[in-house]
Design goal:
By secondary structure, this protein is α+β, with helices and mostly antiparallel strands. It has one domain: Aminopeptidase. The chain is 32% helix and 25% strand. The longest helix is centred in the last third of the chain and has 15 residues. The chain is globular.
């Protein structure tokens, strides 16, 4: 396997959909019922098309040796608070389990931060499952602070 410095962070392509779905399906803590079952592929394709059509959303992959080893999504949100401040939200961060601890996740997050800065965002926002204590330490090492409580309502 190549050196992690050779990781390419790039916009996701439609051909990456099965690899992205596999990253989420392998996540035991996620609880999002992701799967590699071919019957679910149209659902992932529809989501990909929606993200690709949005001017405020970007889906990325980390590629190493021609394989997708990580993914994340960003959304630029402009709010009335903060006098119309923009926030970049980072979502669905996932690094392939056998590739964790090699700096791939840090490269993905730094790419997102740079994207936010270039777009004029004042803050970068992300949430993480409370069970992901390793991820919390990772985000704190990158300069993030736990500042808010999050809430969900499943529909």
């Amino acid at each position: 396997m190549a050196d992690v410095s050779e990781v390419l962070i790039r916009p996701a392509r439609r051909t990456d959909i099965p690899a992205i779905a596999a990253l989420f399906a392998a996540d035991a803590l996620g609880g999002h019922s992701d799967t590699t079952d071919a019957e679910a592929l149209p659902l992932y394709e529809k989501a990909f098309d929606t993200i690709a059509a949005s001017p405020n959303d970007e889906l990325y992959v980390a590629e190493l040796d021609g394989e997708v080893v990580g993914t994340f999504q960003t959304t630029l949100i402009v709010s009335m608070t903060g006098r119309g401040a923009a926030t970049l939200r980072i979502e669905a961060v996932q690094t392939r389990e056998d590739m964790r601890g090699r700096g791939i996740g840090a490269r993905m997050i730094k790419q997102a931060i740079a994207q936010g800065a270039a777009a004029g965002a004042r803050t970068i926002h992300l949430t993480s499952n409370l069970k992901r204590t390793d991820a919390h330490r990772f985000y704190m090492r990158l300069g993030f602070e736990q500042s808010h409580a999050g809430f969900k309502l499943k529909l």
